[in-house]
Amino acid sequence: MTDRTAAPDSPPDLSSRNPDWWRQAVVYQVYPRSFADADGDGLGDLRGVTRRLAHLAGLGADAVWLSPFYPSELADGGYDVADYRDVDPRLGTLDDFGAMVAEAHRLGLKVIVDVVPNHSSHRHRWFQEALRAGPGSAARARYVFRDGRGAHGELPPTDWQSVFGGSAWTRVPDGQWYLHLFAPEQPDFDWRHEEVRADFRTTLRFWSDRGVDGFRVDVAHALVKDLDEPLRDVGDIGVTGEDALPHLPPGSHPYWDRDEVHEIYRDWRKIFDAYSPPRTAVAEAWVPDERRALYARPDELGQAFNFEYLQAGWDADGLRRTIAASLATAHAAGASATWVLSNHDVIRHASRLVLPPGADGDAWLLSGGRAPAVDPAAGLRRARAATLLMLALPGSAYLYQGEELGLPEVADLPTEVLQDPIWEQTGQVRKGRDGCRVPLPWTTTGPSYGFGTGGAWLPQPAGFGAYSVQAQEGVAGSTLELYRTALRLRRKLLAGESLTWAEDTPDGVLAFARSEGWRCVTNLSGTDVALPPGEVLLSSAPLPDDARRLEPDTTVWLA
């Protein structure tokens, strides 16, 4: 890893005005390669991000979270990191990063960056050194290398499976195998090794010294594995991978969510708290509710993503149970809840929420979005209602780039342009995540709808300009203006971190009051319902003029 410890003068840290800013923040996720392209090469970059930060400030976001911008061959969209303390030259330089942080802080935006501690790129200098050093070497001890099974070591050491498909082990020419829970280009670190731990401490300080306000921790639940010999297979559990978590005693899976991982984050918290104000962190941990609370404890990362909410269907009873459980989990941890509807790994919610219950998203993508067909207007209406519901909840809301434009999933990308390793690793039966990563439209026309002066690294669909910022700016009722109004109101309305459920609602209606004296009502039923009394502050869809009715797939905020 490049060691550049002499940081430039840091800009004023605006979060010092409120060190708990993250508890109720609106955080906007930027996938840098798809956000804005300043040099016209078709790939988004840091200077492009800097030029468009005013859009985020005008939207009303509190922070920008950047997905990886580090040197990478893009075997997994940048999550295969070759150097944790530098910028991919295709995306810019460390000076460009500093300029972006300075501009973000000038606009009142905090900056959160991704840290990817479970695995590196196979191009990382440590892994290249390990390949050269051979079996039994100190260099290989930083990663997970093992001899194979079988008469000649020709079989993988265990039956562990990659999240992206196939075995989690790849054999190297000298006969040993290395572990990769994701792509073969992403070898897993051995976090028992003190050199690994020390190097990540340096990385956290490196970016904190450059003005970063917080970190999103990728695959936070996978760092520690049970590597005692003999290694355990998971086949006798009956299920494999993360699906096995509920079938084993908590904290005992061979490589997911082991209890020992929390020692690492307690160590990291000491680093975060050494800064004034303390740096924040949020865990990406695909674990059951009660286990997620452990990552969000104040002496660890402080917050964790709530994936139960993202995976919940469009059903009032189910959503209420999920929200109540999530709030209770966060409260038990001393954290605030988190809410998210879309990100760089899932089908955009303007499409996902109108798929039939139980629909196979992978099969839908494989059909090019035609089986079943999705009504874009119905999807957008439901997405707007879901967003207004989410923004009314106590805690932090995480927005994914382009959702403020109402972007649908680009499900019909031709297979020859796909970049996601899932496509090849699953034998071309899962199309992957490229459909939510298509570069953003900023203008109604142009070679890439304002993304850059040239084309875009993934093809944008015809008609994408109708979703653009230019097409929606200042247009009453547009999705962009709905988000702007909602975030402006949210800042005025939110104070406490609790809600009170309304118990006398019709079937299919979700309603709650906030301690600040306002209410949120969402109609998830298939019929009109009476609109409760009160002044309408904001509605996700136009309300009928002839009566106080709330139509299906509509959310209102009431004074």
- Count of individual beta strands: 17
End-to-end separation in angstroms reads 54 Å
Structural class by secondary-structure content: alpha/beta
User: Helical residue percent?
Assistant: 25-40%
Q: How many DSSP helices?
A: 14
Please state the CA-atom Rg, rounded to the nearest Å: 23 Å
The best one-word shape is globular
Query: How are strands sequenced across the largest beta sheet?
Result: 8-7-3-2-1-10-9
Major beta sheet summary: 7 strands, parallel
Oligomeric status: single chain
Low-confidence stretches: 1-15
Mean pLDDT across the residues is 93
Strand content: 5-15%
Explain this structure to me?
GO terms for molecular function: hydrolase activity. This is Glycoside hydrolase family 13 protein. Keywords: Hydrolase. Residues 29-437 form the Glycosyl hydrolase family 13 catalytic domain. Belongs to the glycosyl hydrolase 13 family. The chain has 559 residues and is α/β, with parallel strands linked by helices. Helix content is 26%, strand content 12%. The chain is built from 14 helices and 17 strands. The protein has helices at residues 46-59, 94-106, 125-133, 194-208, 261-273, 289-295, 307-311, 316-333, 349-352, 361-366, 376-392, 421-425, 469-472, 479-493; strands at residues 26-30, 63-66, 110-115, 145-146, 169-171, 177-179, 214-217, 280-283, 338-340, 396-400, 499-501, 509-514, 519-523, 529-530, 536-539, 549-550, 554-558. Strands 8-7-3-2-1-10-9 form a seven-stranded parallel sheet. A five-stranded antiparallel sheet has the order 11-12-13-17-15. A three-stranded antiparallel sheet has the order 4-6-5, with no helix packed on it. β5 (169-171) and β6 form a beta hairpin. α4 packs parallel to α5. The longest helix is centred in the middle third of the chain and has 18 residues, at 316-333. The chain is globular, with a radius of gyration of 23 Å. The chain starts with 25 loop residues before the first strand and ends with a strand.
